[in-house]
Each structure stands twice: as C-alpha cells, then as structure tokens.
Amino acid sequence: MASFEAARDAARAIGEAVRIIVHGGDYFLRSAVEFDERDSGLSLIAAEDELPVLHGGMEVADWVEDRDGRWSARVDLPEGAGIGGLFVDGRRQIKARFPNAPEDGDLRGGWLFARTPAPGDESLGNTRFGARPGDLPVLDDVSGVVAHVTGGLFPNTQWGSDTLPVLSIDAAKDLVHVAGTGYFFTGAGSRYYLAGAESFLDAPGEWWFDDGNARLHYIPGSGVDPSDARMTVAILPTFFRFAGTEDISVEGLSFRNGAPEGSGKYATDMRSFGAIRIIGGDRMRVHRNYFENVGVAIHVAESDDVTISGNDIAHVAGNAIFFGPQYGTFGRSDNGAIIGNRIRDVGEVYFESAGIWFQASRNLRIAFNFVERAAQFGISGGSLWGDQDASHRAVIEYNLVLRTNQATADGGAIKMMGAQSTPLDSSIRYNVVTGTDQLMARPDGSFWPPRYEKLNEWPSPISWAIYMDGRASGVSVVGNLLARNVTGIGINGGWNNEVRRNVVLSGTGCAFRVDDLTGRGWRPDWARPNSIERNFAQVSNGGCAANINAPDHGTEYVEISDNFFWSSGPPEPTPRE
C-alpha cells in the first residue's frame, strides 16, 4: 500500500480483524493517521526482522549555501502547520535563541534571570516578567518569538517551565509581556531564554524559519553538510490517533522526530497530543515500539484496559507516557498496565513532567520500568484537581528510577498527589531510586548547590526521592531501596500513609520528612496518623533521621517506631556553596 491511510481503508473493507504488516523503511507523515471504531480489532505490526521508521514531518532537500556559513532551503508546509523542530541525521537542532545554548549542555548555562517582582506585582507573573537591566535584546518585531521560562502554579516557584508566546517587549521598563494562563506564574529566580527571532540565528546548530518566504535557514554544526545529511523537519506531535477503538495492537514500530507539544501549560495544561494518542479506546496494546525526539510518546485518555509494555522511549519534550483525562474533560482511564518500558531523557522542553504521569485512574499497575534522567519526576500520579481526577489502587512496584529532578526546584523520583477527598489506597513498593537532585536559581542568577537541603531556610530546594504531596493519603510505601538522593521519603499534608521496611542510604538530607502544610485545616473522618516503622536509614553528617513540622495536626499526625538509624559521616560529594 502507498500509505497508512490506504492500508487502513483496505482493512476496513475486509470488515474483520486484520493484521497490517509494516515493512522496514522511512515513512514521512504530513498529517496524523486517524483510526476510529471501524478499525477495532486491527493490528499494526512490524514485519519480522524489519524496522519501520515513522517521521513526524518532512524531509528537506535542495539546500543552498548562503552567506557567513549559513544554508537555506525552501519548505512548503501543509496548511496550518508550523515547524516544531529540525533534525540532522536524527539529532535535534536548536531553534535560534538568545542567549545561546551552552556548548557543554550544562543545565545551569544559557539562561537570563527574571528580576524579583515589585511588592504587589507577584500576581501579574502569569502574563509578564521583568528582565534585569541590559539583558533584553533589541527586537523590532516579536512575531514568532517565545519565552522558555521556569515558574509554577504560584508566583516565585520553580517547579515547572513553559513556552509562552511573547506579545511585546517594553524596553524602557525591561518588561516581557507574554500570553499566559491562570496556573503558571513566573517570579523571583525564574530563568528564561527567548527563541524564534531571525536576529538570534548566530551559532552552529541553530535554525530559523522564515514563514513569509517559506524558507528554512540553518547554521551547520561541525562536520555537518546539509547537502549530504538527512535533514527533516517536525510538523506533527501526533502520528497515530485512535478514537473509540477497541482491541487494537501497535507493535514494533519506530516513531521519531515529532513536534514537541503536549506537556506545556499554555493552551493544553499537560493533557494533549502524543505520538500515539488513544482517546476512549478499550483493550488497546502498545508493545515493543521505539520513540525518540517526540513531544509525548504515548498519551492514553479516558480509556479502559490499556497495556503499554516493552517500549523504548528517549528524548521526549515532556511526559513520556501520560495516562488519564484529556484536555477540557476529566474522563477516567482505568484498569491499565505500564510494564517493562525503558524511558530516558524526559522533560527536555517542559520540565514539569514525568517518565510516567497518571491522573483520574483506578487499578493501574506500573511495574518493571526503567526511568533515567528526568527534568522532574520519574513516575508521578494521583489527583491534581480534586475528586474530578481522583485516582485509586495504583501499584508502583519493581521500577528502577535514576537521576530525576535534574531541572526543577521541587521534585523527586516517585510522587503521589492527593487533591482528592478520599484515600488513594495505593502502593509504592520494591522500587530502587538513586541520584535524585534539584536545580534552583536564586534571584541573582546563582544556583543552590547540588544535593542541597537546609531545613531552616526558605525559599530552598525540595528533593524527595519518594514524595507524597498535596494531601496524598492512604499510600503504602514498603521495601524500597533509596540511595544517594537528598531526602528519602516525604509526606506533605496527607493521612493514613504507611512507610515500612524501606532502606535509605547516603542521602544528603533527612531520611524522612513529614509536614502538614498542604493539609492544614483538613482532617477527614477517616484520618489516621501516618506511620514510619521498621525502616533502615543511614544518616549523613549534616542530615537528619526525621524532621516533623506539624503545627496544625500536632503530635497525632505521625507515629515513628522500631526504625534503625545509624550515622556514618559525611556523604560523597558533600554539597558546598
């Protein structure tokens, strides 16, 4: 068949369960392939020992060398499409930006820093931020310019990031005005860069698209010849969209080089797109596929009995796997399984993200996954909004989670949120977590040291390997091995949590932290004290065994008994200013 659409239509004509065998080679998609209830029972499977590669965009040819080492090529985009990325032999290039990205990839480099808002102006941080004098470039036109900026749900927080369209720049007042939302605010310590102006195109590896003339401009990196390399542009965040389908399997395909949308706050609130997107689908199976350089790899919305297993996911702009509601609604995704996936380099554009993120879900098993290098969380789930996205009976077990929270001031490896009014009745057990850290900027542009925790300092970074936040209650945390993190296990605001038989080693902060901050004034009828018992924890020099801060809930908030703590001197390396 000449296309996926033609193969799909031929399968529909047969009128029964059909296997579409996809042969190896490159498939360039100009629009998402749509499947609906007519396709139920279909299998899309790679031919044996062959690798079909689906690209979320187009090849670009006929490059010409211009002035000053720049090259350009004409790109005629489909109507309504934009360019979400340029890839050279599969490697993502940099959209022209100011200041330039650091050559060594250091996450602390390549930023400007917002000035601290004036008293009373904090609430305006969702639609503007102030620059330090002399930082802003001179721009005659801000069309197409976006601000990549850190912030959070509240002003002066740094637990996420977004890409906000720049509306205007007031050079006289050093103010950047942006299109924003009611749930993402900048403030003191927010770091940012600007991207998308022609004048920013000045460094190897950068590109800029002249939309008016349909021409792509590029400065090659060392050793790159655009006339000889495979040059592709991303136009699609979604490759396959399944709506109302049942009993479909996707296996052995490769999805690469897609547009980055799907996990930002502006316009979607983290609930959109996905290279494979399933909406209202039941008994779906996504198995042993490969995803690289996409916005979200797999997005399951309001679907039942979906299995995601054995997939290899690398370099995603936001969440790797999202399981829950879709934007604008709060339908449920129940009885799912996310098993044995390899996930790495998560949240490369949108920091508030996770290797696996779930909401509005019941009976979800997350097991035997490997997650490495995430901007914020390895696995995160529960309820963010209240009972409308309540989650129950999640089991998170036997996962290996390495080097998470590498780009935010507040995060961890495995997190449960509990904005709902009922217990989560969930388990976090037998996981291995190591290398959880934080990245928090001060208003002067310096950063807190790595692996840093100081209990009597605020603002200050938060890095909890296992993190129960926002009143998360009824979670059993059992038998986990946590090594070389900051805080081991933290409880914030919830009740009825059981922390038992965990091993905490070589942390630089407290082994256990309990705070009633997010739950003050909230004590439901079913509330019982949290318990921390029969754990084994090493306490480093400068750390602590347990820190309890519960001025509202008092001494009945937590029971601590039969734990074994020992001190072995300072960890390596010791955080220092």
Automatic annotation (TrEMBL):
Transmembrane regions: none
A matching Pfam family: Beta_helix
InterPro entries according to UniProt: Beta_helix, PbH1, Pectin_lyas_fold, Pectin_lyase_fold/virulence
Right handed beta helix domain span: 275-433
Gene3D superfamilies for this protein: Single-stranded right-handed beta-helix, Pectin lyase-like
Protein known as: Right handed beta helix region
